Amino acid sequence: MRPGHALITMVEPHPGQEYAYNRWYEDDHYYAGAMAMPWMYAGRRWVATRDLQLLRFPAESAVARPVTAGCYLSTYWITEGRYADHMKWTVGINKRLNRDSRVHHARTHVFTAFQDHEATVYRDGAAGPRDFHALDHPYRGLVLEVVDAAEPERRAELLEWLVARRLPRALEGSPAAMVVIFRPTPLPGDRMTYVKQVEGVDTRLTLLWFLECDPRDCWAEHFAPLADPAAASGPGRVELVAPFIPTVPGTDRYVDQLR
After folding, report:
1. Alpha-carbon dihedral sign for residues 109, 111, 114, 120
2. Do the beta carbons of residue 22 and residue 257 sit within 8 Å?
3. What is the tens place of the pLDDT at every residue in 225-237?
4. In terms of domain of life, where is this protein from (predicted)?
């Protein structure tokens, strides 16, 4: 078992649509547009309240414009080797849901991509939950980090540097139990028109930090230093570091704290 592939989608509901968007996603789309499909075996939603949005950096991000855009993040694991099978389902079902008026269009996809698993770095070695548990384990926070290599030929070097050098040092003694690393894949040509094609397919790596504490409680010590390019990016550039906390399924908790 491992998360062979993932869907990682950061979305901004349009102003005034926050409650409607959340109810649609909680009551319909999380299930009909994701978890009910074959080969998708785990999922979790995360939210960035306004104070969490204001912690993000860099100010000039290639991912989020402005950097505070994208207050909801959904993460899903897909069975290894079943990406192509799943994509046939997801394109077909989302087209059907759109025809049936079961898609909430008053939203913007800030960062939406299917991704292939590259590596997982653990703080505690063989102890503790594995990466395939991460979306079911009650982690109290998540940090989304997006790093771009300077050029496609250097992405492998960037990955090696992260896995061998930066992440083991950063995880030691930290509240992050693991970092799961993915690389984005292009969306199919018959995708829904409201989802833009993935950028940085040849250069980008996506890091998910799973935290045992609220990100606000460890931000200054463990994540704010990543704003220093020399410390954080190595043979690449950090394009987004964004903290989230888990939503409470079936509720509107935090919706009134987004703006």
Report:
1. negative
2. no
3. 988 876 666 788 9
4. Bacteria
Eight-class DSSP state of 202: T
Measured from the Cβ of residue 5, the count of other Cβ atoms closer than 10 Å reads 24
Under DSSP, the state recorded for 220 is: I
Give the separation between CA 34 and CA 113, rounded to whole angstroms.
Answer: 14
Phi-psi region of 74 (alpha: psi -120 to 50; beta: other; left: phi over 0): beta
Domain that includes residue 180, residue range: 3-246
Tell me if residue 118 falls in helix, strand or coil. strand
- What average pLDDT does the segment 172-187 reach? 94
* Residues near 124 by beta carbon (within 8 Å), at least 6 away in sequence: 177
**Residue 56: CB atoms within 10 Å:** 23
| CATH number (domain holding residue 26) | 3.30.70.100
Whether omega before 3 lies within 30 degrees of 0, making that bond cis, reads no
